[in-house]
Amino acid sequence: MRKVRGVKQLISYLESIHCPMSEATLYRLVKIKAIPFSRPSPGILIFDLDCIDKWLDTDVIAQ
What we know:
The chain is of the alpha+beta class. The chain contains three helices and three strands; from the N terminus they run βααββα. It has helices spanning 7-16, 23-31, 49-62, and strands at 3-5, 38-41, 44-48. A three-stranded antiparallel beta sheet has the order 1-3-2. A hairpin with a 2-residue loop joins strand 2 (38-41) and strand 3. The longest helix has 14 residues, at 49-62. The protein is globular and about 30 Å long. It starts with a strand and ends with a helix. The relative contact order is 0.22. The mean pLDDT is 92.
């Protein structure tokens, strides 16, 4: 499993796969639980990149 910690690391990953999103957009998606993430403790967000890839293939493209 490939994981990154924090929105800024996720932004870097998304830019590297040519799917840029702003920090505000990602925080909004986290707030409404529309993007896969885990929060092991307050203030820490973990994103599994395999889940993000799957989410991009299904949810984002379908919209």
